[in-house]
Each structure stands twice: as C-alpha cells, then as structure tokens.
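As a warm-up, study this chain.
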Amino acid sequence: MRYTIEQIIEKLQAVKIVPVIALDNAQDILPLAKTLVENGLPVAEITFRSPVATQAIQLCKQHYPDMLVLAGTVLTTEQVLSAKNAGADAIVTPGFNPKIVRQCQELDIPITPGVNNPMSIEAALDMGITTVKFFPAEASGGVKMIKALLGPYPDLQIMPTGGIGLHNLQDYLAIQNVIACGGSWFVEKSFINAKNWTEIGRLVREVISH
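Now compare it with the structure written out below.
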C-alpha cells in the first residue's frame, strides 16, 4: 500500500516521535522493528548514513508491512530510486534539493525535505511542499526559530530533528504545526550493535509516556 502525504502526516501525528536509525547490520532492523512495534512505536526512519539502508528498508517492509518506514538522509537520485524500490513509504532529506524533490514528485513518492530558513521554505512552497523537516533543529534556533518562521509561513507542517531529547521534546510538540519530532537517542547504534533490545524497549516506552 502506498501512503499519501496526508496519511503519513496522520500517522506521524499519532506517534509524535520518529526513531532515526543508522545500522551497521541490515538484519538488526528485524529485532529493532519488533521492539518498536511491540512498545507502541510502529515507525522508523532508516537513514542512508549506512550502506545497508536499502536492504534494511526492504527487510522492514517485508516483515512489518504496516509499519511506516521512511528513508532518511537521502542525498542522491540513486538513493531515491533504491529507497522506493525497497518499499520506503516516504523520503526524508537533510536539506532542500530541487532535483531530489522533482524526482520524488515524478515517482509519486512523498518527500519531506529539510529546511531551516526562509529561503529554503520558500523554495519548498514554490514546489508545492508544505510538510518539511526542520534540521538541524536545536542548532538552527530550536523552538524559538520555528515559532518565528510560522509567522510568515503558517501553513507549514514541521518535523524537527537534531538535538532533540527528553529534555526538550515537549517544548517542540507543544507547537501546533509540529507533527512529530525525529530522534535517535533511544535507538542509538551502540544499543543496536549490542543487541540490547530490552533497553531500547524501555527507552521507547519512556519516550511515549513522557
């Protein structure tokens, strides 16, 4: 099933937090996905910071077809194709690249590009995109910056990522236009490599109940 951007927004609003995942071993996505789903977080952003991203996306969608799987840190048109063919539900980019956006629109796969200033926001709006990633969130001015940007751009739907943790998660989620926040502290690579699914599960529950 292909999700529309509206359906993706709905799913993100329901979960509020997106685990941003980097893997060394593609097979680790299966116990990780199981841990996420069982603890109430059926979503994953699998990033192309790792060479096994395509394989991990494919495995995740094969075994957990109802899970929302985003392909993150997508930088090239080749990665867009790989992610789509592997079954990713949407593409997430750290910055705004018109070539990548155009390709996603041609391939009919939703894209949430990264922005952090008026210039990139207007470039996104010009291409019909109102759902954006605000990255790197804390380093770009955080909550204060998002509120300032929403003055002239009130229709944006925003997913802040970068520097977000339990200490400031609620500050971001309190902003009406923030649909969800991306975070990696509860799915750190060190936990994944140690196969510490119990600790990841505990941290997921902590995030959800926070």
